[in-house]
């Protein structure tokens, strides 16, 4: 599913390179903004890959940083051109979490913790539709269907015949007990979860109620890791009106350590699969 040119990842790599050039020059983002007569926030957004960057922006920044090697400038200009192309998700229109989709599309592995619902990559279509309808009550049927289609398309990373996404998910038992849609729908969803958990690149663990307090009580998050060493890992935290992306090494490390604690406190793979299957049978009664 991933194309050769992922605009989200290209913007991120380009931003990292521009930040490196600025730091080599010994300049602050504020100083660069003053030289170019733009806001400091624009420089920050360009460097963190959250904003499209034009070839003109690259040319101006390279001028400020006094980059004399034309090969470097040409390479950065090409990255800027590639970063303005559209990914597959753009064909669905305005998607609120399009930055995340771009990162997920290029990721090699994904670690997810969710205390409330089954993660999107492991949802059935019916569960996804019922979940989105309940979570976003003012959303039109057309927009709900669009979101469902995007979710189903994202799941192709799991079923890809070559280089499928390595997914590790830790669920709270409440995600299995919360009836989304209907009991019949939940039975189908949990049976699907059991089936997916048997894939060699998918690991599912459950933290049972009896575990009590644990490090994941603060909420859902995901850690994305990439095949290219130049791309640092990202922690993604979904919000209501905006999302949070943490890329600093210390932040990623803290969330990674917390995830290891969650994995350690959760039931093992076989126990988790058995619990999911048992709850699915309860919904069949």
Task: Detail the topology: elements first, then pairings.
Elements: H1 7-25, H2 29-36, H3 40-47, H4 55-64, H5 70-83, H6 98-106, E1 109-114, H7 125-135, H8 141-154, H9 156-159, E2 166-172, H10 173-177, H11 183-197, E3 202-207, E4 221-225, E5 234-237, E6 244-246, H12 249-265, H13 269-284
Parallel strand pairs: 1-2, 2-3
Antiparallel strand pairs: 1-4, 4-5, 5-6
Helix pairs in contact: 1-5, 2-3, 4-5, 7-8, 11-13
Task: Provide keyphrases for this structure.
6-stranded mixed β-sheet, 6 strands, 13 helices
Tell me what portion of residues adopts beta-strand conformation.
5-15%
Summed up, the helix count is 13
Structural category is alpha/beta
Which strand order do you get reading across the main beta sheet? 3-2-1-4-5-6
Assign an overall shape.
Answer: elongated
pLDDT average, as an integer? 88
H and E order: HHHHHHEHHHEHHEEEEHH
Q: Are there runs of 5+ residues with pLDDT below 50, and where?
A: none
Q: Return Rg in Å.
A: 21 Å
Instruction: Classify the helix fraction into a percent range.
Output: 40-55%
Number-wise, the strands total 6
Q: Main sheet, how many strands, which sense, barrel? A: 6 strands, mixed
Head-to-tail CA distance between termini: 39 Å
